[in-house]
Amino acid sequence: MELVHFLEQSYFHEQAEKTFLEQKEKILRLLPEADIQHVGSTAIPNSLTKGDLDIQVRVPAEIFTVAVEKLSALYAINEGSVQTDYFRAFQDDTTDPLLGVQLTVIGSELDIFWKFREVLLANDTYRAEYDELKKAYEGKSMEAYREAKQRFFARLMETPEFQRL
Known about the structure:
It contains six helices and seven strands; from the N terminus they run E-H-E-E-E-H-E-E-E-H-H-H-H. It is an alpha+beta fold.
């Protein structure tokens, strides 16, 4: 059973930002029309994080298939993640920190990662609540944490802050 552990974002911020900028440059060389966002907890000051870097690559629907092909040349497809006509997840376990890339069609159902970041940046109460959830799952099952995280984000999607985005 995989266990989950968290540390303060400040431990990872500098390296995560450096890796984000390096990866953003690589992706833009292949997909100049992409909107590339640093998402996830390493993008949220004062938050707890597992220490991995999450990047959202947002593209128009008409280039999604090409984007999948081009990103597949850079990263491994995350086989454990959902795959649709508007979403693909990739990973790179060789970067520091470990990297997850979420490719989404702009305006699609899963074009939400940047919105979560914006809501957590704008509302410290939500960020603190998310950190409390993480503390409750420290050293516990990754699967159980992911289920709780999914419930938290489903609730966050119902907030006025999220709805405005």
